[in-house]
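Notebook B, p. 112. Complex prediction, attempt 2.
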Amino acid sequence: MKIIKVLILGITVAVFCVLTTLNTSCTSTKQSTAERTGVQIWGENCVRCHSTPSPAAYNDVDWETIGLHMRLRGNLTAEEAAKVVEFMQSAN
Ligand code: HEC
């Protein structure tokens, strides 16, 4: 009986450790919107469906429009989309 108790304790500790590790890695990789730059959001989101469009491919006015359009496609917040557009306009 004693060995079963030890086993159960061991498994509980192992599960706890895995959960804690997962939790920490999740929180450390998921940065809040405020911390993420336009470049990061661009690199993480825009490649999901097509290759990352070069900032130089469009002018400032085009980027405003594309920003709105791709904000819906990429399910970005207004703040995230604005940051991407800002980056595209600064780099073209
Ligand atoms: C959910 C998929 C998806 C995501 C995410 C996405 N796009 Fe798109 N994008 C598309 C599709 C589909 C098209 C094709 C044109 C259309 O549907 O209007 C497109 C077209 C474009 C075009 C025009 C390409 C051309 O040659 O005419 C640009 C520029 C663009 N996307 C930029 C972006 C940027 C910048 C982001 C990130 C903020 C982004 N996209 C995120 C799906 C996506």
